[in-house]
Design a protein that fits this description.
It is a single chain. The protein is of the alpha/beta class. The protein has a single domain, classed as P-loop containing nucleotide triphosphate hydrolases (Rossmann fold, 3-Layer(aba) Sandwich), CATH 3.40.50. Helices cover about 35% and strands about 25% of the residues. Strands 6-7-8-3-9-10 form a 6-stranded mixed beta sheet, with helices on both faces. It has a 4-stranded antiparallel beta sheet with strand order 2-1-4-5, sandwiched between helices. The protein is globular and about 50 Å long. The chain starts with a helix and ends in a 6-residue tail after the last helix. About 40% of the residues are buried. The structure holds adenosine-5'-triphosphate and magnesium ion (MG). The site of magnesium ion has 4 residues, from helix 2.
């Protein structure tokens, strides 16, 4: 580990407790079709996430929330700053901004899961197989993996007729539930959720909230939400983004008070 990492680690860490430390992170985009124009993703973001904590990120459209989550998942590489991932007290932290692609792919298998804001579906893979895949990759037999996948689909009220159909033909809400189920069966140690309930009706939202509360017992989560009632139900702490900066953090009660608007 280099000296900068060591310095930051001790400046920002409460020993043994942090799962993620983000220090002075910045991201701009260069848009080549606009003649190399620079667009601000977010700037000067710093926060820690404790192991087992559920951190909600809220804020207006375009304030940098998804870009921040994508930097943690390493879909984007930030311009500067550190993202220190602590696998556990006995391991050295990994700086996700500098880790090799190979390390990142390994971490995505077991350490860090992600539910995208865009409801992407792999073509020609059935709903059951989409959800069973992370279990098969861990060595579970196909019958067992499909059984667990079926339980998730049933619990999420996906009609049984659809279990062997392709999610690429599903409604937005059905596809979102399949994506959430896939992320939950993977049992990652940290889960990144980008508006996981945005396409869901109130009944499905309530089921997903219940499932998130269950996995919270063993998973650290960072979730972006526009629905502040969900934030009140799941989050331990809230970060507010505005004008591409993090403007405040606090408990849901401190940040949201009794209002329900965004
Ligand atoms: N790949 C990209 N290329 C260029 N600009 C980008 C890219 N991704 C994000 N941006 C820009 O970065 C800014 C922040 O976008 P981001 O998607 O992080 O916002 P957000 O807070 O998630 O918004 P929303 O609530 O609408 O999802 C926006 O101005 C956006 O246009
Ligand atoms: Mg977004």
């Amino acid at each position: 580990m280099n000296t900068n990492l060591e310095k930051n680690r001790f400046e920002h860490e409460q020993p043994g407790n942090n799962h993620l430390e983000i220090c002075n992170l910045n991201k701009t985009f260069t848009v080549h079709v606009s003649g190399g124009k620079q667009i601000m993703g977010f700037e000067d973001v710093s926060f820690n996430v404790k192991r087992g904590e559920f951190l909600a990120i809220i804020g207006g459209s375009g304030s940098g929330k998804s870009s921040l989550l994508k930097c943690i998942y390493r879909t984007y590489i930030p311009d500067s700053g550190l993202i220190l991932y602590h696998p556990g007290p006995e391991y050295q932290p990994t700086d996700l901004t500098a880790a090799t692609d190979h390390m990142i792919l390994n971490m995505r298998r077991s350490e860090i899961g992600y539910v995208s804001q865009l409801l992407y579906a792999v073509p020609r893979v059935t709903a059951l197989d989409v959800i069973a895949e992370p279990l098969l990759m861990r060595g579970m037999d196909q019958a067992g993996a499909r059984d667990i996948a079926a339980n998730y689909l049933a619990r999420l009220c996906i009609p049984e007729d659809l279990w062997d159909a392709y999610p690429s033909t599903f409604s937005g809400g059905e596809r979102q539930r399949v994506n959430i189920a896939r992320a939950l069966v993977a049992s990652s140690n940290m889960l990144l959720l980008d508006e996981p309930t945005s396409a869901l009706d109130p009944a499905s939202t309530a089921i997903v909230v219940e499932m998130l509360r269950e996995v919270k017992l063993k998973t650290t989560m960072i979730g972006i939400f526009h629905d502040l009632s969900v934030v009140r139900e799941v989050a331990d702490r809230v970060i507010v983004m505005k004008n591409n900066r993090m403007i405040k953090t606090g408990t849901p009660g401190e940040i949201l008070g009794s209002s329900t608007g965004d």
